[in-house]
Amino acid sequence: MQRMAEIAAAHPAGILLREKDLSPQAYEKLAKEVFSICRRYETPLILHSYAACAQKLGCDSLHLPLPVLRHLPQQQRCQFRVLGASCHSGADVLEAAALGCTYVTLGHIFATDCKKGLPPRGTAFLREVCTEPPLPVWAIGGIGPQNVGQVRAAGAAGACVMSGFMQCDSPTAFLREMERKK
């Protein structure tokens, strides 16, 4: 939890707690701890995959894979102030907007260990989707200080980063570098 506290203290735009391999019970336990840390540092927390957990913990922000979002009842979707979906095409972005999302992630833009063997979609794809998006698009996949400027130039509202924050010496310095390079 020390690293999570360091990341929250750096004040990123938000922390998306994505732990797909955890059981609902294990995820809820982790989410409680991270929610407490995020509140302490006034850093927004977005829970992932488990709508019931988010509601139980009083977290008003949820991110879902688009196939899961499709099956979440509208009455439940509208209970979240922030609702996001993972998208992989322009059509996905339009569908997510129609389902009430307030933002989407789009990727993967650059090569990443999370998607080994799958070719990245690239900045041309990102630019195409961001031409007239109906909601903010956050790029994901292989993004760091070396290429965040390309993501912003393509029209993304921002960039999602995982390994950069987890592997850097200082999350605060890493975030400053990201801001400087955009």
Summarize the structure.
Helices cover 44% and strands 16% of the residues. It is α/β, with parallel strands linked by helices and 182 residues long.
Question: Notable features of this structure?
Answer:
7-stranded parallel beta sheet; globular; 182 residues; alpha/beta; single chain; 44% helix; 10 helices
Could you characterize what this model shows?
Helix 1 crosses helix 2. This protein is 44% helix and 16% strand. The protein is of the alpha/beta class and 182 residues long. It has a 7-stranded parallel beta sheet with strand order 1-2-3-4-5-6-7. The longest helix has 18 residues. The radius of gyration is 16 Å and the shape is globular.
Morphology call: globular
Total beta-strand segments? 7
The separation of the N and C termini measures 29 Å
Order of adjacent strands in the largest pleated sheet: 1-2-3-4-5-6-7
Instruction: Give, in order, the helices and strands.
Output: HEHEHEHHEHEHEHEHH
Oligomer: single chain
Structural class: alpha/beta
Q: How much of the residues is beta strand, in percent?
A: 15-25%
**Can you count the helices?**
10
Give the proportion of residues in helices: 40-55%
Low-confidence stretches: none
Radius of gyration: 16 Å
Mean pLDDT: 95
Reported for the largest beta sheet, the result is: 7 strands, parallel
